[in-house]
Amino acid sequence: MIRFEQVSIAYDGAERPTVHDVDLSIDEGELCLVIGHTGSGKSTLLGAINGLVPHFTGGTLTGRVTVAGRDTAHHPPRDLADLVGVVGQDPSAGFVTDTVEEELAYGMEQLALDPGVMRTRVEETLDLLGLADLRHRGLHELSGGQQQRVAIGAALTAHPRVLVLDEPTSALDPTGADDVLATITKLVHDLGVTVVLAEHRLERVLPYADRVIHLPGDGTARHGDPATLLTGATVAPPIVHLGRLAGWAPLPLSVRDARRHASALRERLPSVPPAAHRTNAATAKRVLRATGVVVRHGPVVAVRGADLELRAGEVTALMGRNGSGKSSLLWALQGAGRRDGGTVDVDGTDPGKVGAVRARTLVGLVPQTATDLLYHDTVRGELDQADRDGASPGTARALLDTIAPGIADDTHPRDLSAGQQLALVLAVQLAVTPRVVLLDEPTRGLDYQAKAALTGTLDRLAAAGHAIVVATHDVEFATGAADRVVVMADGDIVTDGPAPAVLTASPAFAPQVAKILAPLPYLTVGQVEAGLA
Amino acid sequence: MAAATARRIAVTVLDRLRADRLPRGLHPVAWWLWALALATAASRTSNPLLLVLIFAVLGFVVSARRTDAPWARAFRYYLGMALIVIVIRVVFRSVFASGITPEDHILFRLPHLPTPDWYAGIQIGGPVSLEATLSATIDGLRLACLLCCIGAANSLANPKRALRVLPGALYELGVAVTVALSVAPQLVESVRRVARARRLRAGKAKGVRALRAIALPVLHDALDRSLRLAAAMDSRGYGRTGTATRASRRVTGVLMLTGMAGLCVGVYGLLDPSVPRPVGLAGFTAGVVLSAAGLAVGGRRVSRSRYQPDPWRWPEWVVAGCGVLTAVVLSAGTGYDPAELNPGLYPLQWPSLPILPAAAILAAAFAAFASPPPLTAPRPMVPAVAGAGS
Known about the structure:
Chain A is α/β, with parallel strands linked by helices.
């Protein structure tokens, strides 16, 4: 269906080609998963399938890419629209119309389909993706998961034989992500659509993949059967690490398969893990105390009377579905956001009652879109600005070098990877030494490496006596990084407790290792390793 | 037998007619024709009674047949604007007093500002007469009425659906407007988000520095988004060239250019009394024909179809028709005394209400009954709160 023959792609001004000498063929009806670190060329490879690379992005493509026999060299993306459907990371950026129904029809209008056919297909697609109730709704009032399903539907109405999805779940909460992935697998099984999918959180999709393309980052591409390919891949979910550790072959990719292997392992492990899931630096010293925090946005109560205490050296994960009030709570704690009731006390001061300059020395917040804080042309400019805002010269640079070494002064902040941007914003916010650090969804768009780096940074900050709160959807990240987990739902704090207790209490919040080894209370591969030693 | 057949046919026809009045959006062109016809009628008269009657008809039809979509709520802003127009008109007329005749009734006197000799044409301040104020009010009322006709069309017809009626060759224009309409709220959201994030760095909220700190991230965002939108549109087949050949493109270009030139010359000819009327008319007609041909040829290369095109059925005919009827009655001036359309202010008297024009204006209100009731969209859930984040 899709063939790459000796394909190399180089962008203008780049030192070396992003991918080179790629040979691969993807058959009809396959679900093909593209994995690799940020910057390894996943998006480039996906873009080459419908000709966006190089027709739209520029650059040079040598070799030949054909889809169902059509050469992308002679067919720009618009001429492949009837064959390849594309869904991007941020669905709302690709919407052309404003209601669900019109968006579904847009692609077909471009293909000049008959109005009768269009109507039938729109109805079919509404049913297939469970969007019938939303048909007249405005696209921008939908939740992220619903928007992404509309985007998939809009690509499907043209009846493409190939569907290309570039990290379709990276902006979604676990429920939204599950919805979208369930939809994708349904398409593969019911309609035989060929799906090419790039994804960071492999634990969700790996069980469904027929084939994996691994981009190790040096420009080459390896492809093959998921179990064999992942044995050596640097990008891998915990289940693969556990499988490698236990020496299971073939490597199990779903929790079900792993549990069938795991009974022997469970017998070998002590019933109580010999090590904690992470080194806990928490002290008894309370640095922030919030009581009865209320946040309203018009008629919506985002946070209803939350009580929270943060202790020095403790990392707290704040979890809960989209819209449960996590961001509102964090912004209210910092003092920059609305607070309609309750008190916040940091060392005897309320950050909401003092000026912004003083508030940020008490509580530092890294917002969801970290780049909102960056407005200089160079990294150096940002760091200097951070020093001028209340730190001695060089502070921010020193912080950045400990968090993410090797970021050059003259780089444009927008050219950094998501992980580096996060590190820069964190350095800027830490320069004025706030005792409390809040991070809102920092793991969005981070690959496994970047997430591990972030965990390391948070560990160091905790050891230095900071109290940290991380709002996140990512269970595996929370397992590795948090001592304590707070779960919010509908504006209420519903659970607040030590990470091992909360994370093993319900399957929705359980990490893969816990699911595989239940009832043993193991959370991480590290604990298993210690248990086996 | 024949009677039964006739009855059956009659029943079928009635059913069809009824089906055409099931709730749906009326063809936007029908509403625009109706509103423009009313505007034409309003421009023909300065009889305050007739103008108020037109206002009443507009208000009645709009309140009966608008949806609860955002654009449909625009009518009251037009009403506000209309009021402002009248007030401005009256104030200017009072301040720049002119044309006061000896038989005028003086209401009060404003302090008179002496103007230099070379500026003698206009007088600032001075006496304010009842006649001048009335004439200004009526002038303002007429202008306001035209404004509200446009407002009514905008509230009754979904502007996006109206754009879809554009000929294929102008499709790109429609897309651009649609995209702009959906991008604007995103931009506002983006500005609000960045401005809020600014507090986290304790940045100043005002001044040039703040502008830079807010504008740069927002512009970056907007550019990123437009690039992604362009990529998405390209991937979805936007701009697939149909069977356009070099020759057909050239023909389109030539037709459009000469057509536009013809239109310009024609309009000039029509407006300039020194040019013989037939010449202006001929230029105008030629321009229209050439432009239409250009659009038709240009539209042929666009291979695209419309999802759920608006049908044109009898309610559309009736709505457009009753509007046009009003315009024709008020323009023709037969069957009643045309002077009654523009009653004089000297001597000052209560204007009379000419029966036929009044009836014609009331006939335009029939649009509210002929048009099908609008689709009421299921109530959206609580709108996403801007800035609520997660």
